[in-house]
Amino acid sequence: MSEAAGALGILGGTFDPLHIGHLRLAIEAREALGLAEVCLVPAGNPALRDAPCGTPKDRLAMVERALASLPGCSVGPAEVLNSTANPAPSYTVHTLQRFRALHGPQRALVLLLGADAFARLEAWHRWHELFDLAHVAVATRPGHDIRVGAGDTALDAEFLSRKGTAADLAGVPAGRIVPFAITALEISATAIRERLARGLSVRHLVPDPVLDYIESHQLYRTPHGH
Ligand code: ATP
Q1: Quick one: how far is CA 185 from the chain centroid?
Q2: Mutation test of ligand 1: which of 20, 23, 25 has the most ligand atoms closer than 8 Å to its C-beta?
Q3: Are 180 and 137 in contact (CB under 8 A)?
Q4: Which atom of ligand 1 is nearest to the CA of 184?
Q5: Which of 62, 98, 149, 195 lies at 20 to 30 Å from 83 by C-alpha?
Q6: 152-202, pLDDT tens digit by residue?
Q7: Is the pTM of this model over 0.85?
Q8: Which domains, from first to last, does the chain contain?
Q9: 7-27 burial: b if 16+ Cβ within 10 Å, else e
Q10: 8 Å CB contact between 63 and 75
């Protein structure tokens, strides 16, 4: 595919379950950064956290249902589909390598992260290589500052040397870090799972098709989701 295809946003996540914070991030990233499309990529076996409560199949199904009526957004199922045959952790560097191979060396790829995920980036597998494969755009999230440090950690140094604006994204395929603001929604999948385990409503915190899926499959009904 050529550069003319427009920048492609990639939003990885556990999506356990998908909630409206994820959807607003995808929608507002597309608008603020001028992305042609945003692809949501549910992790197969997330590396740096406890095993998800929802199975890969359920988490993928919820993302698919939520996106059915959302123009400009698509689902990347490969990590979930691979995880059934392969229990190895899913690493973002491999996801980006796959997208780069699919879309060619010229297309701008933009990895979308919330501020909390960006703050932990140094713990990610081969994190330095992410900037060779894609731009990184960091969305505001309540309770988490976007790092604007003094360059005293490796991530600070990357931030200071790579920091750019939305206008920088289309010109090159990878390598910039672009902070951007989205509607502040203090919503997390953890809080949603906790509400469900206590028998409380999550209506309007998750899209209706996700709520229907959770109810019909009786997900997240115990504190550990099992
Ligand atoms: P959990 O509570 O289980 O850790 P989560 O709500 O953080 O889950 P993830 O699937 O881990 O959801 O998040 C995927 C991506 O979406 C991450 O980059 C995260 O920072 C971002 N994100 C999730 N919720 C929000 C939100 N409310 N505002 C901004 N970014 C968000």
Answers
A1: 15
A2: 25
A3: yes
A4: 28
A5: 195
A6: 899 999 999 999 999 999 889 999 999 999 999 999 999 999 999 999 999
A7: yes
A8: 3-217 (3.40.50.620)
A9: bbbbbbbbbbbbbbbbbbbbb
A10: yes
